Amino acid sequence: MMELQGANMPCQRVFTTGVFLVLLALLPPIAIPQAPPAPPVSPDLSGMFTFLKEGEFVQLTVEEGQLSGLVSRFGDTADDRGQFIDQFFDKASLQGDHLYFKTKTVHALWYEFDGTLTTLASKQKGEEGYRVLKGKLTLHSLDAKDVDHISERSVEFKSFPDFRRP
Fold it and tell me: What is the dihedral of CA 89, 87, 105, 84, to 10 degrees?
């Protein structure tokens, strides 16, 4: 009798698996919520913002819905002190009011910004400080042994005035 029960076991598994698959097919599909698509980046966000020192700036450019830009700064090392250095964005994104960018590496330095882009209700479009980048700026600096030295700080960069406004 033991042999008969053992012989029926594979048939019982096939039957049970078949019933399970039929029941699974009859269940209504489960809706998986999806995030709404990010709104297109507005071209009027293009412009210049202050950076760390007087004369330095961040440039945001929106073309065909894509965000790009650069940081233009004074060099700080013995080899480039006082020279202007343009560090173009390697990565950039703007989703809602959240802005992120990472610059390309120049002279073993690069920046990352993670924060928000807001508009001040107390200012009129085109006025200095009408838009503000506020968040965390991270400076990455590689030493001679390629060790990444990281420094972070909270920053607030204000838009330059738009002299084209009426």
Answer: -170
